[in-house]
Amino acid sequence: MKELLNRLKEKFSNVILEIQEKDYPTIICKRNGFLDFMEYLRNGEGFKYLIDLTGVDYLNYPQKNFEERFEVVYHLYNLDNKILLRIKVRISENDNWQYSVTYLWKTANWFERECYDMFGINFKGHPNLKRILMPDDWEGHPLRKDYPLYLEEEQEWINYKEFIQKIKTS
After folding, report:
1. Which residues, in sequence order, are CB contacts of 44 under 8 Å at separation 6+?
2. What tens digit of pLDDT does each residue of 93-128 get?
3. Which of 5, 8, 122, 130 is deepest in the core (most CB within 10 A)?
4. Which CATH superfamily is domain 2-135 in?
């Protein structure tokens, strides 16, 4: 594992900001150069399996030691060497997008749509970025820390009553 991390740090010193070795090796990297890094992990180091991709909202998080509000987190697995890597990219609230990795891992399609739907993070280059869990006319992103939790049903989803009526008559 140390060899891999050293090799990555040397080859991508302009992309990798930090390597943390907690439960799993975690590589925090810049958005700039990210696609080349991920392509290398997949094609050059054998991380063919994208286990998960999600977002994190650090709004008002007390232990946060960086300025960006969001992170996009990737869990990659090398099936041959049985190595799990966590990759994180920090995303500013004012520049809220990340590159799509759907051309590398087809499963990223669904994961990126979910991250977009729940956190409002846009993925440049995604083939069909639209909501996947919430109705198309839903306002807001439910996993953001500033999402209002206690609203009246009409405020939560404008077409709620219409939807219920449609179900009842079907």
Report:
1. none
2. 999 999 999 999 999 999 999 999 999 999 999 999
3. 8
4. NADH:ubiquinone oxidoreductase Nqo5 subunit (3.30.460.80)
